[in-house]
Amino acid sequence: MSLGQILFKKTAISIALSSNEGLGLMDGMLKALSVPWLYMALCVYAVATIFWLYILQRIPLTLAYPFSALAMVLVPIIAVYLFGERLTGSYWIGVIFIFTGIIIIAR
Predict the structure, then answer these.
(1) What is the distance between the alpha carbons of residues 38 and 19, in angstroms, rounded to a whole number?
(2) What is the pTM of this model?
(3) Residue 92 CB partners (closer than 8 Å, separation 6+)
(4) Residue-wise DSSP of 40-75
(5) Please, are residues 57 and 20 in contact by the beta-carbon 8 Å criterion?
(6) For the chain, how far is it from start to end, CA to CA, in angstroms?
(7) What would the pLDDT profile of 55-77 be if each residue is shown by its tens digit?
(8) Backbone φ and ψ of 63, nearest 5°
(9) Could you tell me which residues come within 8 angstroms of residue 77 by beta carbon, excluding any fewer than 6 positions away?
(10) 64 contacts 55 by C-beta, under 8 angstroms
């Protein structure tokens, strides 16, 4: 799912770069249809969904779902390296809470 989010961001950047001014919702959606990153993101999401179904066959949702919160940790870190975004101190505090919550739930 994290890879899908990164590919959606690449799609958004491609749309923004191809237009000097902001596009409306409909124009933006139509422009997105011409961006290959969008189709890659959708394929990744399709595979992730199938994988998620596989996981849910084997472990309870109450245990599996908290691990999906790891995307909130991974995506911003990847965005720093790929897109030059910045992380704040409050982000790192949130990461500590997320990891703490996952550890508590997993026990």
Answers:
(1) 17
(2) 0.82
(3) none
(4) HHHHHHHHHHHHHHHHHHHS-HHHHHHHGGGHHHHH
(5) no
(6) 24
(7) 999 999 988 888 888 899 999 99
(8) -95, -40
(9) 87
(10) yes
